[in-house]
Amino acid sequence: MKNVTDSFVSLGHWPSAGSFGFNTDIFSTNLINLSVVLGVLIFFGKGVLSDLLDNRKRRILNTIQNSEELRGGAIEQLEKARARLRKVEMEADQFRVNGYSEIEREKLNLINSTSKTLEQLENYKNETIQFEQQRAINQVRQRVFQQALRGALGTLNSCLNNELHLRTISANIGMLGSMKEITD
Description:
By secondary structure, this protein is mainly alpha-helical. The protein has one domain. The protein is built from 3 helices and no strands.
């Protein structure tokens, strides 16, 4: 320690015009140099270091604040997405239920429509059968009537002579004439 104080004391006693000399005591000169450099660094670097640390602190706080805001936004978006998901799931359930009921309703409508169509076809079939039966009956009647008429004409022609034939025609003309007078 004495060397350190001697170094400071020797600095105060410099000869004004004398010789210039080197202090060869490395320990005391390094210690002095270090203390001067540290003193200057602390004195001048204190503000710069403080500013650097404040800037770093502000950036870290801004980053944390931005992260918190982003986190809050992400949480809000997540909640919105969950709400939308719940809504879509409810709508999907409604569509599913409505779809099943719509399918059942369409199935019943199709069954009813098919049943009505089959009923109409059955009615058309029955009407067609009745029509064809009636037509066949009418054809048979016509043929029977024609055959009976032919048979009667054949019998009349074989039994009638000219005189009897003329009297029958005259009687029929007379009946037609009297019918005409009644209608007038």
